[in-house]
Design a protein that fits this description.
This protein is of the alpha+beta class. It contains 3 helices and 3 strands. It folds into 2 domains: about 40 residues, no CATH class; about 60 residues. It has a 3-stranded antiparallel sheet. A hairpin with a 2-residue loop joins strand 1 and strand 2.
Length: about 110
């Protein structure tokens, strides 16, 4: 999650601020006023359409792996394996979370200019 790293005054009327992007890269800027957190986070450039697509593809692969794992567990349970109910619940929760992340990434890619 992007975050504000810090801000301060160089001299009267000139402020510096720094924000950190999701990928760990820091961005620094200067302002002629005391910047808000939203202005500081605005220093982080928007990801490119290609970067958004690659992220969606990676998250789609993650979701698919969880789905395959869930289906495998369901098949084992159907074949008579016992004691896997809790594991199935946990894997299903992971699959659902991964699917939500994937859909959000797809929407970000679709909405990007």
């Amino acid at each position: 999650m992007p975050q504000v790293i810090g801000k301060g005054m160089h001299r009267p009327g000139l402020w510096w601020a720094e924000a950190q992007a999701d990928n760990g890269i820091n961005y620094t800027g200067e302002f002629d006023h005391d910047p808000t957190n939203a202005e500081i986070l605005g220093l982080i450039p928007a990801p490119s359409k290609l970067a958004l697509r690659k992220r969606a593809e990676r998250l789609g692969d993650d979701w698919y792996r969880w789905k395959v794992t869930r289906v495998d567990l369901q098949e084992r349970i159907a074949a008579g394996a016992s004691g896997l109910g809790a594991a199935l619940t946990a894997v299903t929760n992971q699959e659902n979370a991964a699917h939500t992340d994937y859909l959000q990434a797809l929407n970000a890619w679709r909405q990007a200019p």
